[in-house]
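User: Protein folding is very new to me. Would you mind checking the protein record under this note? It all follows right here:
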Amino acid sequence: MGVLEKLVVNSNLDYLFHKYFGISKLLKNISTPLNGSILEVGAGVGITTNFLANKFPNSSITAVDYDEKQVEIAKQKNLNPNVKFQQADGTNLPFTERSFDFCFAILVFHHISNFPKAISEIYRVLKPNGKFYIYDIPAKTWNPLHRWIKLGTPGIFSKGEFIKLLEQAGFKILNVESKLGFVIECYKI
């Protein structure tokens, strides 16, 4: 992620975006409480992690990010004992198979060059029937400005291509919503 993008995603503006549009859009569709172990891939400084911790207080959350500086900031800000932050690469997660009941990836895949590998890794660490919740930007079709100015957007995909990759990895799609971005709910078969 570039310096300019970090300034935006670590700001109060990003918090407000997620409160009214981002993660709140995804969380409003989850009507039953998620109790168990949650993995958040691409947690950054923990803005979305705090939304998850507030919505699912009975779950333990492991939040990972590739950028060690972002993880250190998240650790300093974290006040929730059910949340653990650590540095990890989404394409090579340091967890055993079938470690988590749920996984969230909020606006992260468009930052990962080898996003198909990250999808496979998430599949590997989810338990059977584990649910995977994604909110992202279909950069290939919706976001030409992002590509043109190259704001750290190595993952270029359309919504359809992304869904196909999820299915090829072994996920069953339960729900898809899209407007400016897309929200996908799926589970490990």
Remarks:
- The mean pLDDT is 86.
